[in-house]
Amino acid sequence: MKNDMLDEMGSLLLGSRLKRLAERLQADAATIHRDVGETMQPGLCGLFAALDRRGPLTVNQAAHALGVRQPSVTRAANDLVKMGVVEAEPDGQDKRQRNLRLTDQGTMLLRELEDGVWHRTREAMDEVLDGLSGSFLDQISAIEARLDERSLLERARARALEIVPYTPDLAEVFGRINREWIEAMFVLEDHDREVLADPQRHIIDKGGEILFVRSPGLGIVGACALCPAGDGYTELTKMGVTKSARGQKAGEFLLRAVIDHAVQSGASDKLFLVTNSKCAAAIHLYEKLGFRHDDSIRELFGHCYDRCNVAMRFEAADYSAA
């Protein structure tokens, strides 16, 4: 930074300078969380992680583990309890203390954060810190200079998921991704084989679309298609994400992109999907993004697959693109 007063004052205003740096990093971390739809604030992550690695803990034990004051842990604990990811019970020996532990929902969320947001943020921060040398003040100056060149947010987003449109050379990838999940849970049916063998003919040439999601370091990890089904209906079909990408929210990222494409192209008014109740996680995601169970859709299109026992229709009023 040019004309930086805190830099000029050196160690005298070190506390103010560290506070500024911390606020800068926290702001980027918060945006990284929002990028993938996570509502948890970065300031809560320390306690959240401590309960996973050392929990259950009392508020005092957590404060000691984190090296912070008890009131800040109490505030964070209250927020986590409201979110349903932590539960607090009176301590058996000291009723003034509460034992904090992760709920099942909290454990699931923590794994998602570790595999997705935290991993990407850690890599971005490691990039900023790589190869630093010199005194502590020199290192702080170097960190700030590197963040001026490219923020933590920009570095993390460079590791983010991206949407890739269909090209003929990706036909094999489309087939492989979908065969993986179908064969793991069901059996390939004749209709599956036809579509996966020639997606160009059965989807693209009919006016449909196939989108992929790519993860840095892993390549293309998911696929989903929109296929015209007659009478103005469009089927959202053949959505799958590889096991290697679980925890990155690649499925939600891809599904949002496909829905947005359907909305923009005018195909969302009669957008539907058929699936099986065994696909509980996928159904939960569909419900989250605006799909509602509809028996009339099942009557119209459920015959396409022997495994179909669930049908859903997209309701634009229930969808938030944020």
How does this model look, in words?
With 322 residues, the protein is of the alpha+beta class. It contains 14 helices and 10 strands. The strands form 2 sheets. It has a 7-stranded mixed sheet with strand order 4-5-6-7-8-10-9, sandwiched between helices. Strands 1-3-2 form a 3-stranded antiparallel sheet. A hairpin with a 3-residue loop joins strand 5 (209-215) and strand 6. Helix 4 crosses helix 5 (70-83). The longest helix is centred in the middle third of the chain and has 26 residues, at 104-129. The model has no long low-confidence stretch (mean pLDDT 91).
Radius of gyration: 24 Å
In percent, how helical is the residue content?
Answer: 40-55%
Which runs of at least 5 residues are low in confidence (pLDDT < 50)? Answer: none
Q: What's the level 1 CATH class of the largest domain?
A: Alpha Beta
CATH superfamily of the largest domain: Gcn5-related N-acetyltransferase (GNAT)
Main-sheet strand order equals 4-5-6-7-8-10-9
User: Roughly how many Å apart are the termini?
Assistant: 34 Å
Quickly count the helices: 14
Average pLDDT over all residues? 91
At the fold tier of CATH, the topology name of the largest domain is Aminopeptidase
**Total strand count, please?**
10
Q: Please, how many domains?
A: 2
**Which structural class do the helices and strands define?**
alpha+beta
CATH architecture identity of the largest domain: 3-Layer(aba) Sandwich
What form results from the Cα inertia axes? globular
Major pleated sheet? 7 strands, mixed
How are helices and strands ordered from N to C? HHHEHHEEHHHEHHHEEEHEHEHE
- Report the portion of residues in β strands: 15-25%
